[in-house]
Amino acid sequence: MRAALKIFGILVGFFLFLSITVKNKPIFNYVYDVTSPATKYAQSATENFFDRSVNSTEKYSKKLFDNSVPRVKDSVDSKLSSTLKRAAATGAEPEEKILESEKKELDQLIKNH
Fold this sequence. Notes:
mainly alpha, two-stranded antiparallel ribbon
C-alpha cells in the first residue's frame, strides 16, 4: 500500500512539474517539442510493423485455407464396392426377384403408413 501511495505521489508531482508555465508555455510543450519527432517515428514504425504482420498473416491464412480443400474428388473404384452399382452398370437385374403378391403387400404397407 505504501508503494502505491508513493507512486501516486510521484505521478502527481510530475504532472504538477510539467504544468509549470515558462514564457507563457507549459514545460510539457517544451518536452513535447524535443521528443515528438522520435515518438512520431516510433509510432509510424510500429504501425508499419503491425500492417506488414497482418498482411503476411492474411496471406498465409489464405494459402493454408486454399490448400485444405482437396483438388481431386475421392472415389472408390472397386468391383467389391456394391453389387447394385455393378448390376446397374451392366444392365442386369438384381439377383433377388420380387413376386407380384409381395409387390402388392409392399404397396399396401406404403399406403397404410
